[in-house]
Amino acid sequence: MTASSRSLLPVVLLGAALSLTGANLGAQPPAGTPPPAKAVPAAVPDSTRQTIESFARLQHALNGLRDREQAELAEPRNKKVETQAELRTRHRALRADTLKAHGFTPAQVSAMTLRLSGDDALRALFDATMERLAK
């Protein structure tokens, strides 16, 4: 066995092992193939759907509030530490008002966030609702 064939041996063995396991690393779908659709579960109870809808509306409102806060903080006239502290205080109050207006407490938001992160079906429903609200 030559030195070059010995250096290729691990690569050849790895390729053979991957082909036997059916691994297709780096495979791309054919061009023009639409991305796979997210399955929205049909078996979710109506009360849970309503809760997810309410939570998605809250998140949509909070996202807009966060965007406005970041834009205000980035303005050159708001670069002083005191001004930024005032803006953050005002936006914390707006966030609390938004939570209250949508019927959520900070603890409920945390609980719902945890629930969505651990349940793929609910997360798919939440993502679909957020996409619909963004339109």
Description:
The protein has about 140 residues and is mainly alpha-helical. It has 5 helices and no strands. The protein has helices at about 5-20, 45-75, 80-100, 105-120, 120-135.
Which spans of ≥5 residues are poorly predicted at pLDDT below 50?
Answer: 21-25
Based on the structure, what is the oligomeric state of the protein chains? Answer: single chain
Structural class: mainly alpha
Number of helices: 5
Biggest β-sheet, characterized?
A: none
Number of strands: 0
Rg on CA atoms, Å: 25 Å
How much of the polypeptide forms β-strand, as a percent range? under 5%
Roughly what percent helix?
over 70%
Overall shape:
extended
Labels describing this entry:
single chain, 135 residues, extended
Which helices and strands appear, and what pairs or packs with what?
Elements: H1 3-21, H2 46-74, H3 81-101, H4 106-118, H5 120-134
Helix pairs in contact: 2-3, 2-5, 4-5
What's a quick, concise take on this entry?
It is built from five helices and no strands.
